[in-house]
Every structure is written in structure tokens, then in C-alpha cells.
Amino acid sequence: MKDLKGRVKLQKPLIKWTGGKFKEFKNFKKHIPNFDRYIEPFFGGGGVFFALNPKCNSYANDKSTDLINFYKQIGNINFRNELYKFIEAWDLIKKFSSITNSEILMIYDDYFNNVIEKDDVSYLIRAVVLTHIDNNEYEKLFDNEFLIDFDNFISEIVKNLISKINRVVNISRKESRNFSNEEIGIHIETAYKSGFYIHFRTLMNKIRKSELNNITNEKFLAIWYIVRELCYGSMFRFNKSGEFNIPYGGIAYNKKNLKQKVDAIFSDDVINLFSKTKLYNLDFEDFINEIKPISSDFMFIDPPYDSNFSEYDQNSFTRNDQIRLANILLKTEAKWMLVIKNTEFIYSLYDKKGINITSFDKLYTYNVRGRNSREAKHLIIMNY
């Protein structure tokens, strides 16, 4: 893949995944050796895999079943078709926001000026939305086959619009601040898109709990992918019922170019890259034992960090797992590189004869639950 000036352009990861190393690749690429096979036990977003673009056979593993099933859909025309329905709907929800904008602004003004009561807002917002859904231009957005649950979709849209109007009115009153119509319009669009996101997040959770049946694998994975793309900061968080509950990314996500991202999934470069890649959904130790790495192989290791928060997609990773990983790496024949945040515990596991350790500093993009510092030293640990 090359850019307009003929320079080699790195293929970015297809999906955002916590702990990815695509941006950090420049800090350790000089240490990567020659190899005949590429092996990655903690694949995630595959940042290093895409940056390296290995020409040889590759073996990628991750404990997340949904993630590996997503990668298995690359080249699947039915999956592509499902994703393009979301692309079209994402564009239509923006247009629908525009055609209802003036009416919702009137409701906002009347509520702000105490012409109508809070209870009236709910009724009027719902009436505005329902008035316009029969417009043929938006048929694909409100198609029940696409939405699966039309009533829930309308409910989430209305709920988010009401919440947004209440919030903006409260801010205006408390701070004596006047929002322009343009600013309110942006908040209205955000409410629509948040409702869109929450609807499909709800469906994803229901499908996972087998509360919805007869959903194809391609449909579920399209929903899963869209939720991953639109959730705030690509974070992982689940409630006590096991439901994914990260909110919509907010105003900054309104302009997301989903088409560009989906096009990349089905590009010739990506399809060719994955045609040489075998995918696994195993515990890392089972995966390494099955692959049986040899001296001409290279393994890139990017495990969850040694921290209080080391659970991604409901897969926990404890210090016992870190010990298991160190034990298997220290006796493997293949060349391997481990990149991980420095802690006293991690350093002690690999401070052994024949192991080389260097480091670099990393600035975090997101601060997960406030538990990780925004800047930390990362270790590059190698057995060569």
C-alpha cells in the first residue's frame, strides 16, 4: 500500500483495541529480527502485525471469541453487506437529525422559556420523530429487519433527545449561558447518534445472553463492530449482569467515517494479508503449545498489563497468568519480544540471564477508570 507520493503506507489496525502497539511500533521496530513465521498470542487490534505486514505465514491468537470471529469474516461478502447497511444508516440518521432540527429547536426554546412543562417535552419529541419516519428517504434507517426491534430504537432516540434537551437547558439556566442554534443542533445530532448506538449496544447484549434468536453470525458481528467503533475510547466495561455499558463517544464521534473504516476491512491488501494468517481463539499457553515455535520463528508478545485493571472483553489476566507466560517464554526456542508496562513484578519475571531489556516512555490516550497513570515506562524484553 502506498500514499499519493509513492511512499509505503502502513495499514492501520481494523479495529480499536485496548493496549494496541501500532503507534508505539517506531519505538521497537529496530529490534525486530528476521523470521520465517510470525506468531502473536495476544493479537488484539494487531497493531504490530499490520505495521510489519509479514509476507510469511502468520499465526494470530486472542482469547476474545468475538474479536477472532470478526477477523474470520474478512472477505465474507455477507458480512460486508451487513456492515454497509450500518454505513447507510449512519448517514441517514444525520440527515434525519437535520430535517427534525428546527422542530426540536422550537421545543427547546419553549421549554427553556417555560412555555411548556418537562412532561410536554417527551410527548412533543416523540411526535416529531414519528411524524417523519414514513418519509421514503429514511426507509432503510427505520426498516425493522435492520433494527430488529423498531420500538426500542424509537424509544432510545426519544430518550436521548429528551435527556440532551434537559441537560442543555439546565446548563443554560445554571451558567446563564446562551447556546446558539448551531450548538444546539450539534447536541441534537449527538442525541440521535447516541440513541442509535445504545439501541445496537442493547441488541448486542441481548444476543450475547441468547435473548434474541435467529440472528446470523454476520449480523451479530456487524453490530459488535459498530458498537466497538462508536463506544467511548474503545474501552471495556461490563455491569454486574455482564452487559457491556460503555456510552457513545460523544460529539467528537459524530463525524466518524464508517465507510472508510469498513472499506479498509475489505481492501485487497488486508484480504491478502489474512489469507496467509491462521486464526486461533485459545488460552495463550494452549496456543503456543499447539504452534510449537522453533528458532526461525518470531513471536511478538503484547499481554494485558500488570495492573489493577487487566480485564478486556471479560477475560481477566492475573499475576498467575503473567507467571505462566514468563515460564513458557523463557523456555521457548523462537525469538520473542515482549512489550509491556514496567512494574517491579514484571521486571523480576524477566531479569534473567540471556534476556535483554530496554525501555521507552508511553503517553496514554485514555485513562481507564482513573487507574492507570497517563505516562508510564514500557519495557522491551527480548530473548535475543
Word description of this protein:
The chain is an alpha/beta fold and about 375 residues long. It folds into two domains: about 30-75 and about 280-350 and about 370-380, 3-Layer(aba) Sandwich (Rossmann fold), CATH 3.40.50; about 75-260, no CATH class. The protein has 13 helices and nine strands. Helix 3 (about 75-110) packs across helix 4. The longest helix has about 35 residues, at about 75-110. The protein is elongated.
Our count of helices gives 13
Spatial order of strands in the largest sheet: 3-2-1-4-7-9-8
Uncertain parts: 1-8, 365-370
Q: Which percent range describes the beta-strand content? A: 5-15%
Question: Over all CA atoms, what is the radius of gyration?
Answer: 24 Å
Helical residue percent band = 40-55%
A few lines on this structure:
This protein is α/β, with parallel strands linked by helices. It has 13 helices and nine strands. Helices cover 47% and strands 12% of the residues.
Keywords:
disordered N terminus, alpha/beta, 47% helix, single chain, Rossmann fold, 12% strand, 384 residues, two-stranded antiparallel ribbon, 9 strands, 13 helices
Secondary-structure topology with pairs:
Elements (H helix, E strand, L loop, with lengths): L36 E4 L6 H6 L4 E5 L3 H8 L4 H36 L5 H15 L11 H4 L2 H26 L5 H28 L8 H14 L27 H8 L2 H8 L1 E4 L3 H8 L5 E5 L9 E2 L2 E2 L2 H11 L5 E7 L2 H7 L5 E8 L11 E8 L2
Parallel strand pairs: 1-2, 1-4, 2-3, 4-7
Antiparallel strand pairs: 5-6, 7-9, 8-9
Helix pairs in contact: 3-4, 3-7, 3-8, 4-6, 6-7, 7-8
